[in-house]
UniProtKB/TrEMBL annotation:
Functional summary from the UniProt entry: Converts seryl-tRNA(Sec) to selenocysteinyl-tRNA(Sec) required for selenoprotein biosynthesis.
InterPro entries: PyrdxlP-dep_Trfase, PyrdxlP-dep_Trfase_major, SelA-like, SelA_trans, SelA_trans_N_dom
Cofactor: pyridoxal 5'-phosphate
Family: Belongs to the SelA family.
Enzyme class: transferase
Catalytic reaction(s) noted: L-seryl-tRNA(Sec) + selenophosphate + H(+) = L-selenocysteinyl-tRNA(Sec) + phosphate
UniProt keyword terms in alphabetical order: Cytoplasm, Protein biosynthesis, Pyridoxal phosphate, Selenium, Transferase
GO molecular function per UniProt: L-seryl-tRNA(Sec) selenium transferase activity
EC number: 2.9.1.1
Protein name (record): L-seryl-tRNA(Sec) selenium transferase
GO aspect biological process, one term: conversion of seryl-tRNAsec to selenocys-tRNAsec
Localization: Cytoplasm
Superkingdom of this protein's organism: Bacteria
Length: 435
């Protein structure tokens, strides 16, 4: 290598580490991340991709673009509101603020007036009870699956959980609710058939071995045609005949019925129909953080809270803070996307399409996340060439479109309106790349 070779002018690591611009861009990212960015930029200079004098600014640009974790924020342009692969519900501004506030030391289990220990998560529990007055008590755990395991274990370990065969749900990635419940020692007593279950089926199965009666909302599939299931009021009567609790897993976490989702059961309805404990997830239609919600009668909820497994599935302070803020704050992003005015979605799609010389097509959004299967949310999307999907995903910001029928569809439904300019910039960059 001659002295004139630009590669000899690549700045050394110690000089770059001492550069105050790199110091401030890398603050909070950790020494390993800063060194990795420096090594990468030096490598690019040695390969002739950038000039040696630009190495420092390349490191600054790389570090500034990076979040504190490797998770990349994504604009969800799929039209699927609760997108499991994108972390389900995006949090409200209030919930984001609450997460920030709760991330240091907080009085999650302390009464500041007395200086004594207090009940954990009292405020989040109260927010749930205020949002769902049909419940006498509530317990917040790690997720819906944990709530189900806790309920069936506490109420029926070593005994039977009576459940309709039509309610055997696989919740994704090969996880079956039935396996989950049996893994902790409750036995499942299946009754009825896939499409029809009658009161007599339950009655024949119930006896001294019955620990609880369970109804699960088959949230991610629907059986149409010759079907029948037993209404909750009748299950309540059967549970009373045998003196066992009735547990209902509604899944998606609607607090009250939503006219936009006519077949989606709500927590309130299930409680009013007599459930002793109702189970739902926090990060589906409720629009909050990952959590498992158990609401119901005081006696049943207390029994669950005192069961040793409850400690293993307890919610952390961040969950409690974000859940309370979600419940107390205004409409969640999930609610806004779910109830988006189709005309407004169309106007936004048309403005984006006009700016890139594309056209719009009708495009139904979906609830997603195992909620309201088959219920279309009428809307519109920008139709781009399929090849634009990859550069959109890899762009800044990352955009996830829907690839369908040989096209790349960009649906603005789940993109906050104030991000439309960013979405447009990403679309322009992606189209420039595919030519
Ligand atoms: C989603 C779902 C679960 C699992 O809840 P997680 O919060 O994902 O653990 C359990 N039951 C039903 C009916 C569901 O829809």
């Amino acid at each position: 290598m001659s002295a004139a070779d630009p590669r000899s002018r690549v700045p050394r690591t110690d000089r770059l580490l001492a550069d105050p611009r790199i110091g401030s861009a890398g603050a909070g990212l950790g020494a390993a991340a800063v060194r990795a960015a420096i090594t990468a930029a030096q490598g690019r200079a040695r390969a002739g991709e950038i000039a040696p004098e630009d190495v420092a600014s390349a490191v600054v640009a790389e570090l500034s673009a990076r979040g504190a974790s490797s998770l990349t924020p994504v604009l969800n342009a799929t039209g699927v509101v609760v997108h499991t692969n994108l972390g389900r519900a995006p949090l409200s501004d209030a919930a984001r603020q609450a997460l920030q506030d709760a991330s240091g030391y907080v009085d999650v289990e302390l009464d500041l007036t007395t200086g004594q220990r207090s009940g954990r998560g009292v405020a989040a529990r109260q927010a749930l009870l205020d949002a769902c007055p049909a419940a006498e008590d509530a317990l917040i755990v790690n997720n819906g699956a944990a709530a189900l395991v806790l309920a069936t274990t506490a109420l029926a370990a070593g005994r039977e959980v009576v459940i309709s065969r039509g309610e055997f749900v696989e919740i994704g990635a090969g996880f079956r609710l039935s396996d989950l419940m049996e893994s902790t020692g409750a036995r499942l007593r299946e009754v009825g058939t896939t499409n029809r279950t009658h009161p007599a089926d339950y009655r024949d199965a119930m006896g001294p071995e019955t620990g609880c009666l369970l109804k699960v909302h088959p949230s991610n599939f629907r059986v149409d045609g010759f079907t029948s299931s037993v209404p909750l009021a009748e299950l309540r009567a059967l549970a009373d005949e045998h003196g066992v609790p009735l547990v209902v897993d509604v899944g998606s976490g609607l607090l009250t019925p939503d006219p936009a989702l006519p077949h989606e059961p709500s927590l309130s309805e299930a409680l009013e129909a007599g459930a002793d404990a109702v189970i739902a997830s926090g990060d589906k239609l409720l629009g909050g953080p990952q959590a498992g919600l158990l609401l119901g009668r005081t006696e049943t909820i207390r029994r669950l809270a005192r069961f040793p497994l409850a400690r293993a599935v307890r919610a952390d302070k961040l969950t409690l803070a974000a859940l309370e803020a979600t419940l107390r704050g205004g409409p969640t992003p999930v609610a806004s996307a779910l109830h988006a005015d189709p005309q407004r979605v169309r106007e936004r799609a048309e403005a984006l399409a006009a700016a890139v010389g594309a056209r719009v097509v009708e495009h139904d959004g979906r609830v997603g996340g195992g909620g309201a299967p088959g219920v279309p949310l009428p809307g519109w999307a920008v139709r781009l060439p399929e090849a634009a999907a990859r550069p959109l995903r890899l762009g800044t910001p990352a955009v996830l479109p829907r690839v369908h029928d040989g096209a790349c569809l960009v649906d603005p439904r789940c993109v906050p309106e104030e991000r439309d300019a960013d979405l447009l910039a990403a679309m322009r960059a992606a189209l420039a790349e595919v030519g």
